[in-house]
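Async update (no meeting this week)

Hi team, since we skipped the sync, here's where things stand on the single-chain job. The sequence we agreed to prioritize is pasted below, unchanged from the tracker. I ran it this morning and attached the output directly underneath so nobody has to dig for it. Comments welcome in thread, and please keep replies under the output.
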Amino acid sequence: IRKVLRKIKMLIKRMKGVVVAATSFFHCLHLLIRESEAACLDWCEDEHVPWFNATGVQKCEFVDCDSCIPCLQMRSTALEADFTHEPPMNDFLAKSPWPMTHRNSYAQASSPYRGPEKNEVRRTTFSSSALRNTGVGLITICFSSPYPDGDTAVWASSGSNIIKATTSLQYIDKRPKNEERIAGNLLSGAYTLVDNDNIFYVPEVTLIRAYGDQEENVLTSPIDLKRTFNVPAEHLSGADEIIVGMTITYDGLLAFVTSRGLVGVVSRDFNASYFYSLTGGDSEEVSNSISCDENGGIYVVSSTNMYRIQWTGRELSSFEEDGGWVAKYDNECGLFDGVALGAGSGSTPSLMGTDVDDDKFVVITDCQDVMNLVLFWRDEIPDDLEILPGTVDRRIAGQVPVQFGDTGTDSSFSEQSVLVRGYGALVVNNELQKEDLLFEPAIASGLDSVSPKGVEKFEWNPSTRLLERAWANKKVSIPNGIPTMSQKSNLIYGVSHGRGFWTFIGLDWTTGKRIFEKRYGTGTIFNSAYAGTEIGPFGQLYTGILNGMARMQ
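Output:
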């Protein structure tokens, strides 16, 4: 009897510890959501229990972290990932789940990290109050490396402001831009990144600005403009030329392209710069961002050509003897109902093939009445390959019409980059069901009668060297945003619209089947407006909205 009583006493003691830890976790999480991190810390200090910051990092000030069951659960959830098909890590990017537009230098827009799954979504709540009044044109939410206390900052650029916030979407600071200088050029500043020094780089017309903390390594520090790079006037072709796209190379330089086809690389201290002009002449336009690989290739799609501009470490070149190349693609379409941001392809080049023995490609959509998904050989073209029937360049490895499941369609169009993971490539439909004369296209795409519908996935077959259709979902609408996917969860995430509501949607990457859909807002203010859906800290979904940000909490 004494042995049994002792065991019961030990069991009660252990259960009490678990209950206290679980209670502290849920109370602390409530405070984080409803009040502030400071309130959370104060309460936990008073109760002598562990506390959690906004990114799910536990501060084990008072108990052993390894003995706290909620902590172990939080930690495993926050770090759960599958790095299969992950591109080589760029050490010069911030160490965060999403440090730049399209997430990495390969511009794949996919993630190894676990996102929300069906069984969790049933009990998920939303930060529908979101971060407001950022200004329109917020495309990317960039997350910094962790600060010394484990917290992460949100950096973003809208058409009128630089924003720094917490991951719970509370303002830290907002710095206005020179709106007279920008003068409606919202595309310049859409593509941004945070480096490994937690410096936030933002193009602004013909400038690149570097922002950081006034007080180094302090999350709550106001924004400080550290330095500015101005593209020398002698390299520019016209008064209307602006910096469009930007990435960071694997040797730590910023690479950019302008609307008139000037490619540049510049050191992050802005003391050294190199330039190269595309060969297509004045008729060539650029309206998308760029990508780069670990071997110095910088990939630029213009209105007429696909380029590999090779950074040799000393100069930029498109000559094959230096590693560069130029390839044509079909460009016979006009601007679709004002949705297109420029002539030619509507996609930032995404890089496919991450392992040593993989076939390696650059992936875009072209510009025909029925657009094609196009794969270009990234490195040398196999000697035994001839030009594919129906294509315009031998470098094209695969070209398949994108029909979104409607084989009889006479038009299709997408203004988003191609989502890539492994040999899979996903395209979303941006062609409005009908032209709406009352609203700008991004706004009109939120009307049920106008909103585009259709998502289609393709797979490269390395055995047959064929690009094949995997599936199409004709009913889903991701009308104007950039989707992402989780390798760990095997789910596609995007912002959808239907029946008057804006929602986060999850689709099965393998089959295209709808797995979940959760409403987060109604009305124009929640329109995703060309923003990317991102998997942020703690596996939460984030997106830009028309005048702010929202997250799936």
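Quick observations from my side:
The CA atoms of residues 23 and 469 lie 50 Å apart.
The chain has a mean pLDDT of 86.
Reply here if anything looks off.
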